Amino acid sequence: KDMARQYMFDSDKTRLKFLTETHPVIMNHLFEELIDKKFHLQREHAVVEERTELPDYFKDKYLLPVEKVTIADDFRGIPETKYYDTSANEFFVEGIGWLDNDAYDREQKESGLSADDFYKKVTKINAHYIDATGMPGDGDMAPEVYALMHEKSYAPENEEEYQRFKDAHERRLATAGVAELPTEYYGVRQNSNNKYAVVGIAADGIVTVVKDNIPSVAEAKKELLSVYEQRKSAAHVELMHPQTIDEISARMYDPTQGLLQNQYRIEKCDDQPDSTHMLVKYTLDEKEGNYNQTGILCYGDYFKCNDALRAAIAAPTPPMPSHDKSTFEIYQLKLSAETREIRFISLDSLTEQGKSPNISTYDKMYEGDFTEFEQAGDTIGKQLEAVFNKFNLNRPDDFKGHSLSVSDVVVAKGKAYYVDSFGFKEIKGFSVPEKEHKQAEEQDKKPVPKKT
Which range, of 65-79, 84-98, 276-290, averages the lowest pLDDT? Predict the structure, then answer.
């Protein structure tokens, strides 16, 4: 009402009075229009003192770029992803409200305004930032403050300090067990029968059909977006043209690996209920020089079989060194969600969770000569203590892991030892049992062409 009075909307000569008496909702609409008009008049004509200093709250912080993704159709009408880093999370546009980056771009194009003129309508920006301890946060700030934060974050004189902030942030992520997501590639390919298929690069680097016999572009788009929604929380999902997928797959091939003893392939499965794919194992026949099918490791959809394929490829050979070699190995838990609750805990605590050390959750971080540690004492306990001391106080330059800690495993003299809260404990079965479903019929075996 106070705002209405200053615009003299109480005259009997205006139609406004009679409208508002009959339709109160119109008064509310007019108030909103007046507020919006007042804002733009102030932005256009008022003399505003330019801010030259950051508010106290932001003085000890830097902007934190965060990965965002936008999805747009290519010339075929098939979605493709575009990833980019930005510290701006959302924009508050007067008369519209909060908009994320995609919605902001869309509204700007539909408004008919230039990018600069549309940005003048922004009154607040929600941005990501970090402090000196690497702690991330989000905060609302005026566009002028965001501009000052941006200038500070990318000023050459602040480069070293900014890097320390980002390094602290990376250490926080590592301590929390937050690992970088793997990248997965998917696209849509048209087959010779004029049907479409969603394809992806499997864990072995081979382009594999995820879903096939799709009748139209519209259905293929729907299936591809379904794959994206299903996988985006577990992976960095790239949607792209199938030719680009083929090129990436070719780059993944390692010609130096030669013929492996075992090969694994994801194949279509038509004879199992509730299964569209299967993971098949092939073993090299060294006499014949080709591969024969020797088992099926998994039934399920493409994603279940691909997880099994990834595990089969990653599973190392059982690490127990032979007794005639005085070597040792150090294993440390992988940085993943699977190991977050079992890192740096005692063997008893692990057992209470119904678990035991499994090599599939570990990475081998070091292998070396055990001779120098054998000189530390006549018992394996004393020798392992010498290993512990060296890999905490005087770590070798080629050691890739963190200081030897609880939950690590040391393999020496044919046995595996768990680094416990106090001392070391021998553990049995530190290997991945190979689970295979043998084919019942010999005639079901089929060869796989050799790599050239």
Answer: 276-290
Tell me the CA distances in angstroms from 102 to 84, 240, 265, one per residue in order: 12, 19, 39
Question: What mean pLDDT is predicted for residues 329-351?
Answer: 90
Whether the pLDDT of residue 239 is over 90: the answer is: yes
Residue 444 has pLDDT above 70, yes or no: no
3-state secondary structure 305-360: HHHHHHHHHHCCCCCCCCCCCCEEEEEEECCCHHHCCCCCCCHHHHHHCCCCCCHH
**H/E element holding 141?**
strand 136-141
The answer to whether 347 and 420 are in contact (CB under 8 A) is yes
- Token pair for 404: 């030897």
Distance in angstroms (rounded) separating the CA atoms of residues 372 and 360: 29
3 state SS of 74: coil
Long-range contacts of 287-294, Cβ-Cβ distance < 8 Å, separation of 24 or more:
289/450, 290/447, 290/448, 290/449, 290/450, 291/263, 291/447, 291/448, 291/450, 292/445, 292/446, 292/447, 293/439, 293/444, 293/445, 293/446, 294/436, 294/438, 294/439, 294/445
CA distance 125 to 92: 6
pLDDT tens per residue across span 16-37: 555 555 566 666 677 777 777 7
Reported residue count of the chain is 452
For 63-78, what is each residue's pLDDT tens digit? 999 999 999 998 889 9
